[in-house]
Amino acid sequence: MSRTVSRDRLTSIHRAPRRAHPRVGVAGGVPRWRHPLVVTTAVVAAGVWLALMAANVLYYTGPHEGALAVFDSPRFNGDNDRSWPEVAGYAAMSVATLAMIGLAVRRRRAVYAAWALVFAVMTADDSYALHERGAKLILQHVSLPSIAGLRPQDAGELGVWAGGGLVLAALVVLAHRRADALGRQDTRRLALLLVALAVFAVGIDMGAELLARVVTGEGALAWLALIESGGELFVMCLIAVTSLAMLLRRTSR
């Protein structure tokens, strides 16, 4: 009889439906958005962004007289190299780079070092116009055709960006495959922000170059440049705040 009971119990256990395991998020995976330093950085970044965009609008609507004449300076035009909006972008990406270095040291994960390299290269490229210089160097040795209406210089810049981007993306992918669950989650967040940045920095920039061939007035091109520089700086600020929030969260390692 004990054998019969034991078989019945085994049968009932065997036939019992399996319960689905609930999905559990990564422990400590949420960045500390409410940390005082993160909140302060976000508020300061938002204030700087709004002030620079307003100054850029005043530059486009100039020339001005009196106190507003200060906004006639080309440094308020975000489409110019070393302008104030670009300098703010350098600062934002430097914060992101330092945050990724801090995460790489604290968590001892190569994926954060890879992201630090990505942000550092982007900052250096913006600061020293590396892809523009690379395109000029290529054109000295190779004759590039006009692709999709783009000038050879623009095509060369796009090629330099694509080549460098592939190398950096490969490093991130390799590090991502060796990362833990938290590192992979952070990579997905940063990758989405990087795609958004590429839309403004590359997509709208190349779109403006194509539009310049069919539009004679400078007004539409100026406002499109404002969207490009403003969107680019906005996403850079998001990257800086997100990286800082990742650094300041509590994790075991």
UniProtKB/TrEMBL annotation:
Assigned keywords, A-Z: Membrane, Transmembrane, Transmembrane helix
Protein name: DUF998 domain-containing protein
Domain of life (superkingdom): Bacteria
Residue ranges of the TM segments: 37-60, 87-105, 112-130, 158-177, 189-208, 220-248
